[in-house]
Design brief:
Length: 242
């Protein structure tokens, strides 16, 4: 066990879906997984392991912000042998063509945080997802009849009070949306040679000021969850016979 996870060795599958909200983790587990069991609940940051279409998969919350996801991703990788981490979360739309509930798959994550520079000797690391997971996600989207937007996002440190120059800068550079975790997840995955991906649903829009409710964010966004699960399924080997 670790200071933040009370699961036992072997409790996690090699692939873990990571929503920010513990109740969204519970919703995913109860809605989509079979033979599911709770494996961790420290600080009510819930984690579950089960099967999706006969293949093992886990789901565990990561909390809010890059420091929080960094702790959980580090411990999952280094203490529980997790090899693939897929963030499934909400984001604020920046691109004017995006609508509420549109799907985004991050092909890179810019950031205004110093965390990535601290990991990279003070330089700007290009935080990006794993190509195998990205390709599998693109293929799965086609099979599901979904049309997510693929592109750059921004992982920000501040939910309130961002620099007023940030929004026009994101629009200028074609950034699709803003969230608070992906850059750290991609950097940690790169450091420890594992795979990471980030699939998002537009929960609010920075230009139009439209937004979804907290209950909708917790208990809907099903297309995002199904896309992430199909990606996990496509990249997970068959279970060994008992």
């Amino acid at each position: 066990m670790t200071p933040h996870i009370n699961a036992q060795a072997g409790d996690f599958a090699e692939t873990v879906l990571m929503p920010g909200d513990p109740l969204r983790a519970k919703y995913i587990a109860e809605t989509y997984l079979q033979n599911v069991r709770e494996v961790t609940n420290v600080r009510n940051v819930l984690g579950f392991t089960g099967e999706y279409k006969g293949k093992p998969v886990s789901v565990m919350a990561h909390g809010m912000g890059m420091p929080s996801i960094s702790i959980y991703a580090h411990e999952l990788i280094n203490f529980y042998g997790v090899k693939k981490l897929i963030r499934v979360g909400s984001c604020g739309g920046v691109d004017e063509e995006l609508k509420l509930r549109d799907l985004i798959v991050a092909t890179g994550a810019s950031t205004n945080s110093s965390m990535i520079r601290d990991r990279f000797a003070g330089y700007d690391y290009a935080a990006a997802p794993d190509f195998e997971l990205l390709k599998a996600c693109s293929d799965a989207a086609g099979e599901l009849g979904l049309s997510p937007r693929f592109g750059n996002i921004l992982s920000g440190d501040l939910f309130y009070g961002s620099n007023p120059a940030l929004l026009p800068a994101m629009q200028k550079m074609g950034v699709l949306a803003v969230e608070m975790e992906a850059a750290a997840l991609f950097a940690i995955a790169a450091e420890f040679r594992v795979k990471a991906l980030c699939v998002l649903t537009v929960s609010d829009h920075l230009i139009t000021a439209e937004e979804t409710t907290s209950e909708e964010r917790q208990n809907s966004f099903n297309q995002m969850m199904e896309l992430a699960l199909e990606t996990a399924y496509a990249t997970t080997p068959e279970m060994a016979a008992a």
